[in-house]
Predict the structure of Tumor necrosis factor receptor superfamily member 6B.
Amino acid sequence: MRAPERPPLAPPWALPALLLALAVRGTAAGAPTYRWRDRDTREWLECSQCPPGTFVQRPCGRDSPTACSACPQRHYTQFWNYLERCRYCNVICGEREEEAQPCTATHNRACRCRTGHFAHAGFCLEHAPCPPGTGVVAPGTPSQNTQCQPCPPGTFSASSSSSERCQPHRNCTALGLALNVPGSSSHDALCTSCRGFPLSRPEPGGPETEECERALINFVAFQDIPFRKLLRLQQVGDR
């Protein structure tokens, strides 16, 4: 016996068309409804709901539709509803918040953290600065704290900041100067025009004396030298 033929499958383009037809049909059906029992006749009726921004002033009757009224000032309804009164806009922005959306007939007031703060566990916290030696990868947003990372080789960050990225070290050679102190992750490279430093000392009163003295101070300041050894170096320099 021959098996009955199966109906052909719908082509792929038919599904969007079917969904579109259902959507049109749903729109034509009108507003959503709710069941209401007439107080006089005790009859159960299918009443239309009221659209956002309105409320039910009078339920429908056997021969009359639902009567809707607009929400008064500082009140709202966000969805289709059958409420007897609109909801009060009860959201109040805190000290570190600002109004993101005002109270309207269709929405409650919405708040967000002020600039420089982000929301965490129901509080607005200040964006944390990245400490020296680290730079900002992503600035803080109203929903996220500042994202930091250690400065890669050749870059530095000398101060705490919630906005600055790591900066490249100064190129002394390109500036026609000599490198005095190499840069690190937390300070820039220091250059000097004092030639031969630190292997030679300029003549007292010479044109490079002041610059070389400054170079020596900068050089010593960035060395990890015990205090007693610094005093000894000072005594040698004063001779």
About this structure: The CA atoms of residues 138 and 147 lie 5 Å apart.
